[in-house]
């Protein structure tokens, strides 16, 4: 059912892997921040029962942190009433007394977030509580300059497409075709780099750093860092379906992070609909707080409502700005108008059922996507209906490739196993690299980048792939 390890998966025991940095350095920080958040929430509560449970949660999270840091065994998840507990515990059993420092990275990291969720699920007053919500919203506030830049551009493009069915400046049909291809690629690249602001990695980023990552200048400079780019293939698929006048043309997005990344996902979604490259967009969020910054259904609703009253939203400061002693600058009238345009466009598309949110517990299971056809047949059948399924971000890529130590030249179509040729699912991974696994590279490319500064050299570690500086956009047709 699961990935059959012809090629071993990355393991926390490997000192050359980002896995080992994660378990030793990053997870304790993430858990400490979670504990702080619960403290804060408990502090302002007047509800005795909630306070009491809050204290218990803090002690449970501290225990989890201790166990991970001190290489204890992973314990079975308690029955918190959810159906996925059994699956997690079976996998844990199959791993045989696994300890934190010598367990497959992918499973242990999913287990970490599932275990946090189960702690909250076991209480009455904290069920479903999202310890990362505060961080997610605050980082979105910090993205203000990029959000404003993009909303102005979006308003212009969508207005042009919807009123004149053209791209500004295109005169002949051929020019229009070219312009549409370029625009499509630009929208996808915005969507790709939106992933660079993932919260779990960039815990030390300042406001200025975030802004630098997001503007259009930064994007142009980063184009050379996309080491494999299959966007033309993806465009051809959507274009032929459009030409064939297929009535229902769906594009799915397996979402990654909330805040700025979700914002750019919606930019892409709205663009595809306005350009007629899709008729429906199905978004797949997570069902529990996941890898710090991943999208939950409520993150979607919160983002939309923030845009509905942008002046009020930006009258509050992000945490970083508060610390820096800044005061909020009101938005100009034009800025308010473009943000409200987004709000209206997206709310309308959502109400009309052209943008749909479709959660499934499959996305927060412990293993790779190799199991999709077997363990989530309904989700699998559903994805086959789509013209193109976009998998956003690093974790989705790790799950597609089973987080295994493939040689970097392994074809992408091979590394995604059952979702490759014959699956009936058209896959497009948009991934900034933040972990070891990478496939589908031309011969010599891995070595070339390793030799660049900070690339890892001869250390045996593929360090270049950890920082989000490099990206891959990879396509698999899935032909039956
Ligand atoms: O939000 P993303 O892009 O999936 O990134 C999640 C992060 O967490 C990790 O899984 C590591 O903990 C990395 O793969 C990545 O840095
Ligand atoms: Mg993340
Ligand atoms: Mn994520």
TrEMBL record:
A GO-annotated cellular component: nucleus
This enzyme's EC code(s): 3.1.3.-
Sorted UniProt keywords: Hydrolase, Manganese, Metal-binding
Cofactor: Mn(2+); Ni(2+)
GO molecular function, one term: phosphatase activity
Damage-control phosphatase ARMT1-like metal-binding domain: residues covered: 23-448
Domain of life: Eukaryota
Function noted in UniProt: Metal-dependent phosphatase that shows phosphatase activity against several substrates, including fructose-1-phosphate and fructose-6-phosphate. Its preference for fructose-1-phosphate, a strong glycating agent that causes DNA damage rather than a canonical yeast metabolite, suggests a damage-control function in hexose phosphate metabolism.
UniProt free text on domains: Subfamily III proteins have a conserved RTxK motif about 40-50 residues from the C-terminus; the threonine may be replaced by serine or cysteine.
Descriptive protein name: Sugar phosphate phosphatase
Organism: Lophiotrema nucula
Lineage, broadest ranks: Eukaryota, Fungi, Dikarya, Ascomycota, Pezizomycotina
